[in-house]
C-alpha cells in the first residue's frame, strides 16, 4: 500500500511538471520503476499504459484552456505513434546506451538555444504564427516516438525543444500540442509492448497508481500553462532541458563524471536557471503589452492561413 501511494504521488508530481513544461512524466516515472528493480521494458510499458489515461485528461484540459494546435497534433502524432510502436516492439533487442549520450548532446544544444532565446529575446517575432510543415513534424514525430518507447520517456524532451526552437509556435501551444499528441504515442507504445512482452510482466496496480496521480495533476498543469507568461515558460522549459540532458551526459559511459563534478555542474545550472527566471519575470513586466500584441498577431495568422496564402503578393 505504501508503494502504491508513493507511485501515485510520483504520478502526480510527474504530470504536474509534464503538463506545465511539456516533458518529464515518462523520465520521472520510469526512473523510479527502474530504481525499485523493474526491467526496462516492463517499466516503459507500465508508464505508457498509465499515460493513456493521463494524456487523455491532459489533452482535454489543454484544449479547454486553448493550449492546443490540432494541426500540429495530427502532423506529429501519427508518425510519432508509428515510431513508438516500432520502439516498443523491438525494445528487448535494442540498446540505447550508445545513442543516449549523442541524443543528450543534441537536446542540450536545443535546450541552450531555447533557454537563451526566451530569456534574453522573449517571444520570437517574424516566425511566430507561421505553420509548422509536415516535412519537419513528420520525421520529428517518428524519432521522438521511437526514443520515447525505447527510453521510457522522450516524447516531450525531443518534441518540445525542437518545436520551440523553430520559433513558429508560442510556448503554451507547443506544450499543449505535445501533451495532447502524446495520447497517440501512449496507445501505440502500449500496443507494441503488449505485442512484444505480453502482459505478465506488467503490474496493473502500479499502472493505476501512476494514472490516478497523473489525472489529478493534469487540469492543474493545463491551467498553469494558460496563465504563465510565455517568456517565463520558455526559460523554465529551457532550464529543464539543460538540467535533464546534462545529468544524462555526465552519468553516461562517455564521461562517467565523479559525484563532486556532477554536483558542481548541477549547482551552476540551478543558479543560472533561477537567475534566468527572475530576469524573465522582470522582462515580462516591462514588455507585457508587446508580448500580448505578438501573441494576438500570431493567433490571428494561425486562424486565417488560407486567406493569406490566396492574397496576391
UniProtKB/TrEMBL annotation:
Which family is annotated? Belongs to the 4-toluene sulfonate uptake permease (TSUP) (TC 2.A.102) family.
This chain belongs to which protein, by name? Probable membrane transporter protein
Q: Localized where?
A: Cell membrane; Membrane
Q: Which organism is it from?
A: Actinoplanes missouriensis (strain ATCC 14538 / DSM 43046 / CBS 188.64 / JCM 3121 / NBRC 102363 / NCIMB 12654 / NRRL B-3342 / UNCC 431)
Sorted keywords for this record are: Cell membrane, Membrane, Transmembrane, Transmembrane helix
Transmembrane feature ranges: 72-92, 98-116, 181-198, 204-225, 232-250, 262-281
Q: Which InterPro entries does the entry mention?
A: TM_pro_TauE-like, TSUP/Inactive_protease-like
Q: Name one Pfam family in it.
A: TauE
